[in-house]
Structures are given as C-alpha cells and as structure tokens.
C-alpha cells in the first residue's frame, strides 16, 4: 500500500454512508439524471469508492475512470502501478492526472512493459517532473511494446541520448510507433531526396513531429510543392535546413505558404529571389496571408523593384516588425536631426537596416557623430555600417587607424568605406602585421584592448569614399 500519500483502504466491503448522514463525495455518485448510494455489492460502486478514497480522484473523475476499466479493476494491481510511478518521483497529483487521462494504465501489469519502459525513461534522465510531463501528454507510451526498440533505433541512426530524451518530452507518441514499419520509411524518404543523416538528426531532434506525418499523405506532397518553388531537391534541402525552416515539412504548405508565393509570383518576382526569401528564414512565410500581402504592397509602394533581390529583403525586414518598434528606430535618427524620408532613403539602399536593434542603431550613430564627428546625414548615406559589429569591427579598426594616423604612417584619405569593406585577413596584413614591429600597440588596438576615445573635435576623421 502507498503510505506516503494516502491511508490504505481496507479490502473489505466499504462502509456505506448516505447523503442524509454525511455530505461527502466519497459516499455516493451521480449520473446526469439521478444519484445513488454506494452499494457494497456493486463492483462499480466499490471501484468508485476506492478511487475517491485511496487515490484522491474527484467523484466525477472516479466515475469516468471506473466506467472505462469496468470489472477488471483490482486493488492489488492498482497499488502496484501507483507504487511504481511513485518510486520514480511522481507525486500523488501527477499520478492522479495520469490515471484520469489513461484509466487503462491501472490494469497494466507493472512487472512487464510498464516497469521496463519506466526504467528505460529513467536511464534517459526522465523521472519525477520530467517523466510526469511525458505521461501527462501521452501516458500510453508507458505501455508501448515499441518504446525500447524505438530508442535503440534512434541511437543506431546517430541520435544522442540527450536528443532522444528531448524527443520523448516533445512528442512521446513517436515512441509508440513500430520502428521498422513506421519510423524507418520516413528517414529513408528524407535521405532519398538528399538530406544527409546529420541533417535528419538535426531536423528530427528539433521537430520530431515530422515522424508523425505520413510519407504519402504529407511528406511527398510537401516536398513536391516546395520543389515547384525552389526548383530542385538540392534547394529543397537547403530551404528546409537553412535557418531551421523545419516548418516547411510539418505544416500544410497549400494553406500556409503557397498563397504567399502566388502573391510574389504575380508581382513578377523571380523564383530565384523567392528561394532567397526562404533562405532568409521561414518566419516571414509564417505570417498570416493578409499581413504578408499588405507588407508586399507596402514594399512595392516604396518603389522597390520586384525583380531585384532587395525587394524580398525589404519584405523580410518589415515582416515580424511591430509598428511601434519601427517608429522607435525612426526616432533614433530623428534625435540626430534626420528626417523620416531620409531614413526610408537609407532603408531602400539597405533593407536589412531594420534588422538592427534600436540600441545598436543609437550606439553606432553616437560613435560616428559624437566620437568621429561625422555629419549624421553622411553616416546615414552608408546604412551598411549599421550591420557591422561595433565592438568586433568598427572600433578595433578605427583604433588601429588612429594610432597609425597619429604616427603619420597612414593618411586620412584612406576612406571610411574602404576601411570597413576590407576582408579581415587583408586588413590585418595591411594595417596590423605590416606595422606591428614598428608600433606594437596596433596589435592591442586591433584586439579591442585599447579604449578608443575618438578623434579630437579639431582633428578630422577619415575621408568618406
């Protein structure tokens, strides 16, 4: 008996307490049309009484459970199941919730599949609250004859135990599937169209619900729909794996994606650019069709050419951006005396300007205007600057150049844009390695180890070209 949570019920005829003598739910049960007193000779009444008193179920829940387990219920089997769950860290409330969701679990033989599976899950660090989460989602997994073989199947296909654990937490149902009949065909299909085994492991460990989809009824139609858009199996794989666009294999593309693609095609946007939109992250394709179409219209009205890739960059930039956040970004430039129209001119030059956070926009503007003394309008003419890392690129390179300029080793007409467009290896070769023997400080400057205070107000910054 389970002494930790409850007092054991005497395995004799329960004492009958009528409604008139005691206001308690453990003495009678109601149907929709009537109520009746527990009967010591009625098996269902005895089961209901046991479930209420010994398990803590409400009367309604006890009645519902008793109807599903009918006359097969025994207190010994019930206690054994309870003890097994309790011994692996489940609380009384959690066990009660599992029984309500899966009444037949109290009829299972705990010495067979139940015990084997709970020990399997325990070996994967699933016990207590984490095990309760699994069982509350899909308690039947504890009775599955396929759980152990499913775990072994995933291990042989390169999944780590941590990945398997997370898959059980996310989608316990797949561990009730027969591995060879149900799981393997889906992995084989994904490999047949070009997904590598490492791709599949990444894909399924993050979105295990893919294994709940039918090959014929879902995966093949999804791949065919994608292929019409991105034109090859190779691009299908890229579109799904890049930026974790796993949504493309789990949702109804005919409802969620194809209407948006049709809108883009109707504007004359090449499929190659639509593919680029996929590669930028499927978040933009998960918006409602209404919102997506509005953004596309707004971008067209701003004058973006639908045939150029900047069009889909602009669409991607606007989607998912709240109006209030857009206004905050515009306000950053307004605080430096720039107009709304100047901001949108910069946006047309570099649509990914909107990907930059409000904080970073402010920091970059402050650096160039207040430390380097550039005019705000000049800075905004080069919106690509806002995509660069202030700490890892802009400040280290300017610090390096300041040292070299102060020692008259380079001239100021080197050019701001030239400076930041240089590949890292080229910059290091031309401005660090070349001078490090003569001026050792350039190494520290390039590493960001020297605090850069900017140029003196009377000392002009680099030319802009």
From TrEMBL:
<dbReference type="InterPro" id="IPR003690">
    <property type="entry name" value="MTERF"/>
</dbReference>
<dbReference type="InterPro" id="IPR038538">
    <property type="entry name" value="MTERF_sf"/>
</dbReference>
<keyword id="KW-0809">Transit peptide</keyword>
<dbReference type="Pfam" id="PF02536">
    <property type="entry name" value="mTERF"/>
</dbReference>
<protein>
    <submittedName>
        <fullName>Uncharacterized protein</fullName>
    </submittedName>
</protein>
<comment type="similarity">
    <text>Belongs to the mTERF family.</text>
</comment>
<dbReference type="GO" id="GO:0003676">
    <property type="term" value="F:nucleic acid binding"/>
</dbReference>
<keyword id="KW-0806">Transcription termination</keyword>
<dbReference type="GO" id="GO:0006353">
    <property type="term" value="P:DNA-templated transcription termination"/>
</dbReference>
<keyword id="KW-0804">Transcription</keyword>
<keyword id="KW-0805">Transcription regulation</keyword>
């Amino acid at each position: 008996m389970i002494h930790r949570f409850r007092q054991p019920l005497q395995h004799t005829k329960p004492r009958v307490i009528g409604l008139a003598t005691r206001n308690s739910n453990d003495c009678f049960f109601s149907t929709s049309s009537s109520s009746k007193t527990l009967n010591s000779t009625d098996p269902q009444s005895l089961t209901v009484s046991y479930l209420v008193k010994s398990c803590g179920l409400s009367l309604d829940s006890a009645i519902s459970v008793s109807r599903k387990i009918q006359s097969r219920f025994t207190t010994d089997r019930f206690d054994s199941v309870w003890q097994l769950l309790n011994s692996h860290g489940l609380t009384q409330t959690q066990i009660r919730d599992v029984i309500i969701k899966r009444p037949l679990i109290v009829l299972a033989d705990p010495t067979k599949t139940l015990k084997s599976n709970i020990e399997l899950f325990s070996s994967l660090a699933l016990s207590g609250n984490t095990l309760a989460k699994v069982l509350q989602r899909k308690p039947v997994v504890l009775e599955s004859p396929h759980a152990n073989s499913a775990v072994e199947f995933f291990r042989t296909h390169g999944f780590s135990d941590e990945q398997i654990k997370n898959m059980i937490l996310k989608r316990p149902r797949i561990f009730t599937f027969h591995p060879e009949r149900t799981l393997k065909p889906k992995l084989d299909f994904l490999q047949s169209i070009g997904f590598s085994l490492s791709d599949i492991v990444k894909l399924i460990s993050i979105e295990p619900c893919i294994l709940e989809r039918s090959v014929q009824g879902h995966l093949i139609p999804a791949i065919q729909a994608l292929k019409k858009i991105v034109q090859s199996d190779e691009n299908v794989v890229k579109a799904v794996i890049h930026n974790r666009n796993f949504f493309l294999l789990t949702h109804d593309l005919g409802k969620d994606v194809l209407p948006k693609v049709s809108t883009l095609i109707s504007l004359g946007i090449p499929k190659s650019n639509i593919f680029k939109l996929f590669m930028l992250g499927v978040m933009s394709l998960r918006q409602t069709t209404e919102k997506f179409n509005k953004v596309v219209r707004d971008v067209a009205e701003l004058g973006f050419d639908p045939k150029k890739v900047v069009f889909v960059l602009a669409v991607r930039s606007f989607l998912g951006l709240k109006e209030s956040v857009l206004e905050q970004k515009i306000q950053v430039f307004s605080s430096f005396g720039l107009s709304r129209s100047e901001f949108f001119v910069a946006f047309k030059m570099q649509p990914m300007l909107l990907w930059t956070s409000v904080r970073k926009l402010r920091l970059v503007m402050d650096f160039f205007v207040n430390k380097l003394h550039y005019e705000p309008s000049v800075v905004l003419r080069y919106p690509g600057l806002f995509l660069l890392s202030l700490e890892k690129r802009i400040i280290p390179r300017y610090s390096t150049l300041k040292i070299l300029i102060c020692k008259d080793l380079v001239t100021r007409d080197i050019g701001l844009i030239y400076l930041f467009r240089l590949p890292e290896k080229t910059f290091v070769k031309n401005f660090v390695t070349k001078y490090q023997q003569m001026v050792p400080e350039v190494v520290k400057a390039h590493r960001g180890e020297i605090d850069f205070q900017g140029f003196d107000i009377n000392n002009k910054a680099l030319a802009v070209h």
